[in-house]
Amino acid sequence: MINYKHLHYFWMVAKEKSIVKASAQLHLTPQTISGQLSCLEDSMGVTLFDRVGRHLELTDAGRLVLSYADEIFSLGSELQNAVRHQPKKSSLAFKVGIDNVVPKSIAYRLLEPALHIPEPIHFYCRENDLDALLTDLLLHKLDLVISDSPIAADLDFRGSCDPLGESGLTIFAAAALTERLQGEFPSCLDNAPLLLPASNTGIRTHLQRWFDKWRIHPAIVGEFEDSALMKEFAQAGVGVIAAPTAISAEIERKHELIAIGTVEEAVIRYYAISVQRKTAHPAVTAIAEKAGEWLFKESA
Fold first, then answer.
1. For 227, what's the count of Cα atoms within 13 Å in the CB-facing half-sphere?
2. Sign of CA pseudo-dihedral 216, 218, 223, 224
3. In which element (H, E) is residue 69 found?
4. What Cα–Cα distance (Å) separates residue 81 from each residue in 68, 85, 183?
5. Closest Cα to residue 289, out of 93, 146, 94, 114?
6. Are strands 92-99 and 55-58 parallel, antiparallel or unpaired?
7. Taken in order 238, 243, 245, 250, is the CA torsion positive or negative?
8. What is the DSSP secondary-structure string of 93-106?
9. Can you name the residues that pair with 28 across neighbouring β-strands?
10. Closest CA to 254 of 230, 235, 238
11. Which residue, 78, 95, 129, 285, has fewest beta-carbon neighbours within 10 Å?
12. 37: left (phi over 0), alpha (psi -120 to 50) or beta
């Protein structure tokens, strides 16, 4: 390791081009500075200065070291300023992973209680598939993962998977597509174009069971990891979709879709997945306590 105190002495001498002048700036004796420079040269295995008359001139190695020292001590000055002018009360970082298939509006409502904890909070939100998010969670890159699927029973996961709330499931379609569907619900979905979320999701599992129960065979025209993109396709009339009943009004208003029926007995549950820490993150605690209230109310 470089001795940064010795490097700072070298930097001052290089700027002043004199050990005597540098020693006055540093409030040290010239003998002390000279000795520390010798130690630095020995540790690096190079000569940093040549004496030209009464002055010191940098060697090629000295000029190289000076270029790095300029950057190092410039950054040190920036660090001092940043620390000196930082807010007295810094915000609390909260790193959240959201499963791609969880609707954005539901994700927000589940996370919203974290906004009301006493500490100011700084969100870092990222979306990905559940497997990737769980990997980051185990590596402590995330504080919490929101998903519509619980942890698989055969997965060696040391943490908690707490249910946050639940919602029914409703089928939606654009007006133009609704007019083309023939028969009563749900038989009108037989051979109808269908847009599905990616595999291994709560919604897809419930839909497949429900279709089997009613012996319905829709035509799958698209599969999506991003629920928002799937709704855009549905709005364009490409196919019907299933979405949580809790956000029916929002889907009808924002995406101009029509609710054409509900999936009986289907209950979509949302989970907060976290790993055990010595001290629980206050945002995780707030979400676990409050986030599901609106979902349970909608389901009731």
1. 24
2. negative
3. helix 60-85
4. 20, 6, 71
5. 114
6. unpaired
7. negative
8. EEEEEEETTS-HHH
9. none
10. 235
11. 78
12. alpha
Backbone angles phi, psi at 157, to 5 degrees: -120, 120
- H/E stretch holding 285: helix 282-290
pTM, 2 dp: 0.62
In tens digits, what is the pLDDT along the chain, a chain of 300 residues? 789 899 999 999 988 888 888 899 889 999 999 999 999 999 999 999 888 877 788 999 999 999 999 889 888 887 887 777 665 557 889 999 999 888 888 999 899 999 999 988 999 999 998 889 998 998 889 999 999 888 877 777 777 888 888 889 999 999 999 999 989 999 999 999 999 988 777 888 889 999 999 999 999 999 998 888 999 999 999 999 999 998 999 999 999 999 999 998 888 889 999 987 767 789 998 988 876 565 555 444
Structure tokens at 281: 């993150």
Could you tell me the strand order of the sheet in which 121-128 lies?
121-128, 92-99, 144-147, 268-275, 159-167
Distance separating alpha carbons of residues 23 and 12, to the nearest angstrom: 9
* Look-up of token digits 């870092």: 124
Alpha-carbon distance 222 to 273, whole Å? 29
Q: Residue 118 corresponds to which tokens in the numbers above?
A: 């006493």
In the chain, the amino acid numbered 53 is G
User: Six-digit token pair at 21?
Assistant: 């002048």
Rounded Cα distance, 162 and 165, in Å: 9
Residue 16, token pair as written in the block? 């002043």
How big is the chain, counted in residues? 300
Amino acid code (one letter) for 230: M
